[in-house]
Amino acid sequence: MAGYPRWHTASAQGPRERNADAVSAYAVAGAPGITFALADGVGDDPGAGRAAQTAAAAAARTPVQSGPVAAILNAQRALRELGGTGDAVLVVAMPFPGGYRIARVGDSRAYAWDGTMIRKLTTDHTLAEYFRARHQPYSPRMEHMVTTSVRTTKPDEISTTEVVGGGLLLTSDGVHKVLPPATIDEILADPARGAAALVETAITLGGTDNATALFVEQPQVDVAAIVTERFPSAAWSSVA
Fold first, then answer.
1. C-beta atoms surrounding 82 within 10 Å
2. H-type helices in the chain, by residue range?
3. pTM of this prediction?
4. Coil, strand or helix: which one is 143?
5. Where does the PPM-type phosphatase domain start and stop, copy by copy (predicted)?
6. CA–CA distance, 211 with 196 (Å, rounded to integer)
7. Which residue segments constitute the domains of the chain, with CATH numbers given?
8. Which tens digits make up the pLDDT trace of 42-71?
9. Which neighbouring-strand residues pair with 41?
10. Second label for 215, Cα 20 to 30 Å away, from 11, 126, 199, 235?
């Protein structure tokens, strides 16, 4: 849509039985900016896919003025209302004048993009990160064991940050745990390749998980100053 920053999303199933990742982007008529959400279902079953889709949609539809923490709590409420035991990790980015406010649980990530290099904005909620921060030994398997999730998190466990200016990249661990930062930089140097090339490269290099990316190019206007007359929900997910 004219006036909005250009953004791209892509996802691939990889060698899993199903794709349990989901992306949602939503702008409320008369409200500023677009909210972005990327969720990664916990596990490889239909419940994980439904959880990711439900969480991403509920988070993206949260009013910007409520903030990204409220978006994750709305996602939690939606999951609990859905029933079952399906769960997901989630990262949400909401625009404010000059940048984005970000909240996350689990190991989906957000990066800033300055046109040359990415800069990691989030810290994974994993057992490996927990022990690494305390200078304790950990096993490679702990990199994939999350300590928070949409269904289980408490409000004070939701991590937040913000970024001013530039572009934005959201990824599931099937991308960022396969591609080193230098490779991501090289791919994003050509914005037209963007999310699709990140996902394709992650799978080609041997990724064993679903791989999903949402890339927001550097805006030409203030992302929070735009007011839309009509912008329907743009959501993507693949659930077997």
1. 16
2. 46-60, 68-82, 127-133, 173-176, 181-188, 194-204
3. 0.88
4. helix
5. 6-218
6. 10
7. 13-230 (3.60.40.10)
8. 998 999 999 999 999 999 999 999 999 999
9. 88
10. 126
